[in-house]
Amino acid sequence: MPLVIVVTHSWMSEGINQTVKYIMGEQENLYCISAYTDETMDFMDDVRKIIFQNNNQNCFILTDIFGGSVNTKLASFLSEFDNIHLITGVNLPMVIQLLLTNYDEAEDIVGKTIFEAKKGIIYMNERSQSIDEFDEF
Fold first, then answer.
1. CB burial class (10 A; 0-12, 13-18, 19+) of residue 79?
2. Coil, strand, or helix at residue 30?
3. How confident is the model over 6-28, as pLDDT tens digits?
């Protein structure tokens, strides 16, 4: 199971964490950090501790917005750690895909995760089916 760390501005990551728990139950390999909150002013140290506590295994860090301060600061880890895979534009399908992936090659996981996350973005007004025709999962 890959190590997944979600780091977002404010409480978005906590919302993702609570939703994942609701759908999948507690996930021991998922860490969610709410940057710039009273509880987490120094998210960089928090992420670094998680990486070290997990024996520097391959780690997928997901951030909320490209070019935002969270993403920009965490990009510095790419030159510090060989085992970091930084993906921005986090959404719930992306997190679930990573958590359900049997670990193979990190680059394959990243490609598949991004592909699946993009498939979940749908403009429903353009769908020929009515919303009632879709299966719930």
1. exposed
2. strand
3. 999 999 999 999 999 999 999 99
- Could you tell me if residue 87 is inside a domain? yes
By the 10 Å C-beta count (0-12 exposed, 13-18 middle, 19+ buried), 132 is classed as: exposed
CATH number at residue 86: 3.40.50.510
The reply to whether 128 falls in a domain is: no
Number of independent structural domains in the chain: 1
Q: Where are the beta strands (DSSP E) in the chain?
A: 3-9, 30-35, 59-63, 84-88
Nearest to 85 by CA among 4, 10, 7: 4
pTM: 0.89
- The amino acid at 29: N
Give the span between the Cα atoms of 137 and 128, in whole angstroms: 20
